[in-house]
Amino acid sequence: MAKINSAGExxxxxxxxxxxxxxxxxxxxxxxxxxxxxxxxxxVVATFQEQVKSQGLDDKVEVKPIGCPGFCERGTxxxxxxxxxxYQRVRPKDVAEVVTALGKKDVVSxxxxxxxxxxxxxxxxxxxxFYKKQQRLIIGNNGxxxxxxxxxxxxxxxxxxxxxxxKMSPDTIxxxxxxxxxxxxxxxxxxxxxxxxxxxxxxGDVKYVIANGDEGDPGAFMDRALxxxxxxxxxxxxxxxxxxxxxxxxxxxxRNEYPLAVKNMGIALQAAEELGLLGKNILGSGxxxxxxxxxxxxxxxxxxxxxxxxxxxxxxxxPRAKYIHTSEQGLWNRPTNLNNVETWANVPLIITNxxxxxxxxxxxxxxxxxxxSLVGNxxxxxLVEVPMGTPLREIVFDIGGGIPKGRKxxxxxxxxxxxxxxxxxxxxxxxxxxxxxxxxxxxxSGGMIVMDDKTCMVDMARYYTAFLEGESCGKCVxxxxxxxxxxxxxxxxxxxxxxMEDIAxxxxxxxxxxxxxxxxxxASAPNPVMSTIRHFRAEYEAHIKEHRCPAGVCKIxxxxxx
Amino acid sequence: MAAKNQKAIVKQILQKNQNDRARLVDILQDxxxxxxxxxxxxxxxxxxxxxxxxxxxxxxxxxxxxxSLIPRGRHLINVCMGTACHVxxxxxxxxxxxxxxxxxxxxxxxxxxxxxxxxxxxxxxxLGPMVIVGEDYHGEMTPEAVGGVLAEYK
Lengths: 562, 154
Prior knowledge:
The complex is a heterodimer of chains A (562) and B (154). With 562 residues, chain A is α/β, with parallel strands linked by helices. Chain A folds into four domains: 119 residues, Glutaredoxin; 201 residues, NADH-ubiquinone oxidoreductase 51kDa subunit (Rossmann fold, 3-Layer(aba) Sandwich), CATH 3.40.50.11540; 84 residues, Ubiquitin-like (UB roll) (Roll), CATH 3.10.20; 105 residues, de novo design (two linked rop proteins) (Up-down Bundle), CATH 1.20.1440.230. In chain A, 43% of the residues lie in helices and 13% in strands. Chain A is built from 24 helices and 15 strands. Chain A has a five-stranded mixed β-sheet with strand order 12-11-15-13-14. The longest helix of chain A is centred in the C-terminal third of the chain and has 18 residues. Chain A is globular. Chain A starts with 6 loop residues before the first helix and ends with a helix. The relative contact order of chain A is 0.10. The C terminus of chain A is likely disordered. Chain B is α+β, with helices and mostly antiparallel strands and 154 residues long. Chain B has two domains: 61 residues; 77 residues, Glutaredoxin (3-Layer(aba) Sandwich). Helix content of chain B is 45%, strand content 12%. Chain B has a four-stranded mixed β-sheet with strand order 2-1-3-4, with helices on one face. In chain B, a hairpin with a 2-residue loop joins strand 3 and strand 4. In chain B, helix 1 packs antiparallel against helix 2, helix 1 packs parallel to helix 3 and helix 3 crosses helix 4. Classes of the chains: A alpha/beta (562), B alpha+beta (154). At the A-B interface, helix 2, strand 11, strand 15 and helix 18 of A face helix 2, helix 4 and helix 5 of B.
């Protein structure tokens, strides 16, 4: 495709792409996210292509590999459009039957989702209970596009927000973002518009923008789904942000454990450059921007902004104290604006639909939707996008389908290793930044780990502490030594060597970490320990006093019992 | 692989990255993908090529979990220890692999066939516990299934 030089040319290109497409043509969309690839979705795609050909449906049916639509539990997912027939757990051996049924305008009933309670089959994607209560503003587009084709993104209106933004003044854009109430999706929930404004007004000609895709929280993969499933949405938000801030260089920092995300973003960057949506004089506006991909090295700490920037400079990923904000002095000591990939993906929506529309969604203090990664002991593992303020119970039971194997719900951990556990008594809280903080957890990047009654809470606290001890960069003493001690104490308790004083000692070390750790990894590390002590103290006491693990997880040796 | 050959690889990768010292993490990723690990001579050649002290390259190579200074086996086994896999019993899967291969995480079998590592989430949580061998994903692993999976690579 030739380079586009103006917003008008972009619209002409969009029209020509749409003109070539028949909206009634059958599209077999096959999820090709990492989750479904683990089920063997590549084979499913190949088999579909063979079958469509051998049954002579080439010109009537298109097979499209798509990004992750979210319902990982039921992969490989196949959606037949425009009817939106939703097939689940599709294996290569099922493909011939699906294609044959398609020719007869029929559906294959055995591959449809069956309602757990009634056994009734659900045909259309949006009627599946998992999707019904969601509001998929961001992740919904994953199901519509082949992430490796920029034409697909343009066909659903892609880059029109960029064209609109380039005609606005940077101050107006920032004002819109501020009015929308968008807060950072990486965890801290800092107001995005204010961050942009500070970076814009910081001294210096050279400024940077960064997308943080170093999704290190174990059990969280919404950022991966966005980068690999709809890379252009992240990119478009980033270009708009860079224009508003006045940055001409950007970095896309992606975890190397996500090879498909790195690959798809690379393809997206190249396509955007070829079309002139990146590079010099973007859409004839006179604005220049280059964006490079940087792969992470497998360090959880690099999700912290200053550590990430250090590693971008080719140094060890250690954080620094933030007396001076990165928006004033960040990468190479220049003003730098870093946002999470999901934050960036929200930007085009706000510009297209306006801040008034966006701020209607969500609660008073938290606007918009949030994608959660619902995992652990839950019937419907997957990615869930709901408006802020949705009660936790609704996410776990209505969307998540509750706890499998007839077991009972015990707790849910939000915010990954930096968050805390929330017990059943608090399940009715609305999920937003402020409410989660109030109950001793946090939003974090959106991991939600559900635990059933066979999960030991002391073991969970030990697990998170051991994880963080391993990931602590070792720069500051409270984190390096404190976590080590905590881990030893918790391991002792799970092995039956605990003493009652240990609980008070844990609380004391936790308080020190909160006050004295250099960065948020250390300062939030006590959350899993403090919240399990607060809500499940009886379990700690059973381990210590009775040498017994109520959940039956910890191997308390006979020696410890004497 | 001969040392001379390794140096040529380093040179080529440095060139591809315009000898940009800011891209050190990326450069080391590429080198490791080619050679399999980061021997001392490679660290020295990288430092010389980027005109930075060897200590800088060494600190980065030892800080990030992705890098290894010792040779690795032909098949890299990654056992996911993410939270979702943990609550589904990945500990016992790891224990079984350790027993079968007689190595601990971070170690390589003496015949250089397998290297065992753990990873903190690959985001395929619906399929946990997850074991990845090379580029193959093996989901819903149990200690009983470990032997069969390993046999595929022996």
